[in-house]
Design a protein that fits this description.
Blueprint (H helix, E strand, L loop, with lengths): L9 E7 L3 E7 L9 E4 L1 H18 L5 H30 L5 E6 L7 H6 L5 H20 L4 E4 L16 E3 L3 E3 L9 E3 H11 L18 H9 L5
Parallel strand pairs: 1-4, 4-5
Antiparallel strand pairs: 1-2, 2-3, 6-7, 7-8
The protein binds zinc ion.
C-alpha cells in the first residue's frame, strides 16, 4: 500500500499586526533573515487618511449615495492592497514542503464603518487585523494552502525558544526573562510568528504554565501588557 504522505508538513507561523502587517516564518528557521515580513505602514497611513477624508465628507454637502460610493471604492483598494500583501506570504510559504499557514484564532469581524466614524475605534481591532486575517485565508485558498488557527494567548510575549513569558520593550521587541535561554531580545513580530508555528504541534500549544512557573517576573509582565495584542 502506498503511504498517503511521504514527508511532514511545514507549519509556517503568520503573525498579523500593524507594525508588520504579516510576518511569516517556519518553526525551525535557522536565521531570521529567512523570515518574511510585510511592513504595515502604508496601509495604516491609508486608513488614517481615509478616516479624515470620510469625516470631512460627512460634514460636507455631498449626498450620502456619493459618499457611500466613494467609501466602497476606497475599501476595494484597501482589500486589493491586503490581497497583494497576503500573496507575498503565500508565495513565501510555497517554497517549503507541504506548507500549512498557522495563524492565531481571531474572533473579530472587520468593521470599517466603526473605524471611519467611531472616535473611540482602534485601527487594528476595528478593521485592519481582522480584515488581514480574512484576506490571508481567502488568498491562501486560491493557492490551495491550508490555514489553521491556534490559540492566541500570550503569543506576543512567549519566547519562541524556551516558552517563558518575556517582557515587551518599545512594543516591537520581546526580551526573554529566562536566564537559561539563549534568547536575549527578539523582534516581537518574528518571535510571534515562530511561537504560532510551534503551537501547530500537539503539546506545544502555549508553553506558559502560571502555576509551574519559577519566574516571579511573569505576572508583572502580564500586568504590564494585559496580554493584549499590539
Ligand atoms: Zn527564552
Amino acid at each position: 500500500m502506498i503511504p498517503m504522505r511521504d514527508r511532514e508538513e511545514t507549519p509556517i507561523g503568520v503573525d498579523v499586526g500593524e507594525y508588520n502587517l504579516y510576518t511569516a516564518c517556519p518553526v525551525d528557521l535557522p536565521d531570521w533573515r529567512g523570515a518574511h515580513a510585510v511592513c504595515g505602514d502604508d496601509l495604516c497611513q491609508r486608513l488614517d487618511d481615509f478616516r479624515r477624508e470620510v469625516a470631512a465628507l460627512l460634514a460636507s454637502s455631498y449626498d450620502r449615495a456619493t459618499i457611500a460610493a466613494y467609501i466602497q471604492q476606497r475599501r476595494d483598494a484597501l482589500i486589493a492592497a491586503l490581497d497583494a500583501a497576503a500573496r507575498t506570504v503565500c508565495e513565501y510559504a510555497t517554497a517549503y514542503d507541504d506548507p500549512v499557514l498557522v495563524t492565531e484564532d481571531s474572533h473579530y469581524s472587520p468593521d470599517l464603518w466603526a473605524w471611519l466614524t467611531d472616535p473611540d475605534a482602534h485601527r487594528g481591532s476595528a478593521w485592519l487585523l481582522s480584515a488581514a486575517h480574512l484576506r490571508l485565508r481567502a488568498v491562501a485558498a486560491e493557492y490551495r494552502l491550508p490555514v489553521t488557527a491556534v490559540t492566541e494567548a500570550y503569543s506576543t510575549q512567549e519566547c519562541h525558544a524556551c516558552g517563558v513569558l518575556g517582557t515587551r520593550e518599545l512594543n516591537t521587541t520581546v526580551r526573554c526573562t529566562n536566564s537559561n535561554c539563549h534568547v536575549d531580545t527578539v523582534a516581537a513580530d518574528f518571535n510571534a510568528a515562530k511561537v504560532l508555528a510551534r503551537r501547530y504541534y500537539p503539546g506545544r500549544c502555549c508553553d506558559y504554565r502560571p502555576r509551574e512557573s519559577a519566574h516571579s517576573g511573569d505576572h508583572q509582565a502580564l500586568a504590564a501588557d494585559g496580554g493584549l495584542r499590539d
